[in-house]
Write a structure and sequence with these properties.
Radius of gyration: 21 Å
Structural class: alpha/beta
Strand order of the largest sheet: 3-2-1-4-7-8-9
Largest sheet: 7 strands, parallel
Helix content: 40-55%
CATH class of the largest domain: Alpha Beta
Number of helices: 13
CATH topology of the largest domain: Rossmann fold
Number of domains: 2
Distance between the termini: 15 Å
Number of strands: 15
């Protein structure tokens, strides 16, 4: 079967969606060796994909979500003549079929932030509202024609059903995975010396409250320095300003680009990992931290609670004092850290990219056989 994978969300610089694209594409090729897979990627990102016999790459300069996107892709897609299509990122062109055959198109919706979270696109209220309206329009147009929709957590399923109740029968919960650490194998590295955050600086990551909470907690002698691995994007300058105002800058080290090897070492040696997001679709860095046997502080009431289960210390992400208290508590109790680390490794072992790809493959087969 010819399957088109629209992975243009994969960019030259790796991010969370990029990790999803690379992990699932490669495993689909392994799990379904009889499939003929074509992966569409953005220019300059092919180096992230290992060559495989039944997975070929096609670069396209057609930008996602822009007017004329389907027209610019149509020639390439017609030459492939797929029997099914999977778009790895929210929405996009829906293909009717080729050569008299159907081409059911499915989507992966990682979260609903671009559809409904105020402030996601920045502090300018008008621009933010217009962009959310634009993406709602795109999704509203593609949703009725989608064959299936994969989401990473039940939380995202609930959010999407609230916005589009008519889509409920199409939605499949497909949990994600990680590949930095061997599942279920506790790490024996010595821990201590710093707290760790990994992610971007956009509003949903709640870094303003995290910095404020850390500045308060750091007055306690048992609280070590904070290391923040933060991607340089549109929100990075605001993050730098907030850090400078907080007074915690002297005890905070900011890294903007690290290799996988460096990231693994940070996960293995930090005292604890902190992620008090107000919104998440899944939370890949949290799963990576848990897989490394890292004690984790995560936010209650978000998808992180669903992912971490009993493997994290949960806090109200809107309560600065609660975040600060959790930092002090986890830093002052070695027994708590050991218990959380053991729970985290056990919980993280339930998630894996092989399972993710298997569920995606089954979803595609269901849409073709309907």
């Amino acid at each position: 079967m010819k399957v088109l994978l629209d992975g243009r969300g994969l960019q030259p610089d790796m991010d969370g969606i990029g990790r999803f694209v690379t992990a699932v594409s490669g495993r689909l090729a392994s799990l379904r060796p009889d499939w003929d897979l074509t992966l569409l990627v953005s220019p300059g990102s092919s180096h992230h994909i290992a060559p495989m016999e039944n997975l070929r790459l096609a670069e396209s300069g057609a930008r996602r979500f822009e007017p004329g996107e389907k027209r610019r892709l149509s020639g390439l897609v017609k030459s492939i003549a797929p029997e099914a299509c999977l778009n790895f990122s929210l929405t996009g062109p829906v293909w009717d079929g080729f050569g008299g055959r159907r081409c059911p198109t499915s989507f992966v919706v990682h979260d609903t932030m671009v559809l409904e979270m105020r402030g996601y696109f920045g502090s300018g209220s008008l621009q933010d509202a217009l962009k959310r309206s634009f993406y709602r329009g795109l999704f509203r147009a593609s949703c009725p024609r989608a064959a299936a929709i994969a989401v990473p957590t039940r939380k995202v399923m609930d959010d999407l059903c609230r916005l589009h109740p008519e889509a409920e029968s199409k939605i499949r919960v497909v949990y994600e995975g990680q590949e930095l650490f061997t599942p279920g194998i506790p790490d024996g590295s010595a821990r201590g010396g710093f707290l760790l955050y990994v992610g971007n600086a956009r509003p949903y990551k709640n870094l303003g409250r995290l910095i404020e909470a850390y500045a308060s907690a750091a007055r306690s002698p048992e609280v070590p320095d904070l290391v923040m691995v933060v991607r340089r994007d549109r929100a990075f300058p605001s993050f730098q300003e907030a850090l400078a105002r907080s007074g915690a800058g002297g005890r905070t080290r900011v890294l903007t680009a690290v290799s996988d090897a460096e990231l693994i070492e940070l996960y293995r040696t930090c005292t604890a990992f902190v992620s008090p997001s107000v919104w998440e679709g899944f939370g890949l860095p949290v799963l990576e931290a848990m897989s490394a046997g890292c004690p984790v502080i995560a936010s209650r009431g978000t998808a992180l609670e669903e992912v971490t289960g009993d493997g994290a210390l949960l806090v109200d992400p809107y309560d600065v004092d609660a975040i600060a208290g959790a930092i002090r508590e986890i830093c002052s109790s070695g027994a708590m850290r050991r218990e959380l680390a053991a729970r985290a490794v056990s919980r993280a072992a339930l998630f894996g990219w092989d399972s993710t790809a298997g569920r995606i493959a089954e979803m595609i087969e269901e849409t073709v056989n309907e």
